[in-house]
Fold each of these.
Amino acid sequence: MAALLIPRRNRGMRTRLGCLSHKSDSYNDFTAILPDKPNRALKRLSTEEATRWADSFDVLLSHKYGLAAFRAFLKTEFSEENLEFWLACEDFKKTRSAAKLASKAQRIFEEFIDVQAPREVNIDFQTRELTRRNMQEPSISCFDQAQGKVHSLMEKDSYPRFLRSKIYTDLLSQTQRRLS
């Protein structure tokens, strides 16, 4: 019986490793997750807009196609939980109902902050503990420190790599080709 389990386990491992080896970082991956139909969206995106994403991280995050491109890039690095957490916090800050505030806070904490959370973000122990204490009386600002740390991590680490990535350079090339 054990002999039957080993090949099956190896097969599964080979499949997982095969998926990892086919990790892609290309313009085509970006178009698959665009908020609109890819061709129409790219026709709307100007070279100027895409170039402005390099001006600042916040400019990138404020543009829906910039956000989509950055998300696609983070997926290639297996770190999209950082952006998803940041976006969840932005949505959380718009919550006006006290009842919804508490339930949303709990969901965000369990999904991103708690130790062994399914999409745990990389924050230090002190920030995690402060956020845990903030959960006793959730408020609009209970995730501010954690969100700030994640924003800073993405800005200093992922954002510069995004600007050098094939996703971004291919996208710029595509918008420039339309002008020719």
Amino acid sequence: MHITQLNRECLLHLFSFLDKNSRKNLAKTCHKLLEVFQDPLLWSLLNFHSPVELKKDNFLLGPALKHLSICWYSERVKVCNIEDWMKNSFQKDFCKRHENTVSDFLLDVCNRCPNLLSLTLSGCGHVTDDCILQLLKNCPNLKSLKLENCVRITDHTLEAVTRHGASLRTLHVDFCRNVTQAGLERVREKCPSVMLRAERSANMIPDSKPERKLMLEKASRKLVQL
């Protein structure tokens, strides 16, 4: 039996085991498999592990998307995982080239994926409060928002949660060093049903205090001299 002789349900099941590139390559072989690739039911879950993946055409965004994860780490390039003053030139160049990639992608999600239920962002250092605000407004069913090491996230995101996160049940802001204890307490007060986690966030040195960063730079230079 040839694969194209299988019914639509079986083909969707088979496609579900493939990664995005494999799905795209298989869809190029015939019109019937292209239709399966384009079926919204196939794209309820998306995981990305590199900024480059967001720019490819091997996936579909649409109302069927329920769960989205954008997480990346690298032993060579720890994208926004350490203080800016510690980054070498290669790391700075990498971050600059991908500065708006995630934010632009998430704004596209806002416009095309209103039924999103969960969003996980890790190491996405250029995502802003405004981007999360738009997501909360445009995805009213969002139940889980997990942010890790998103250094531009501040109390404005926490305020947006209290105003627009009516469906939210889980909020993580781990290693988001620019949120404060006051902001976290406000979420606990206004949204008692939300399971809030903020591991190593409000107690970390925030980017919003340049004098503290200057002190760290001086300390770092002294250590190098020693």
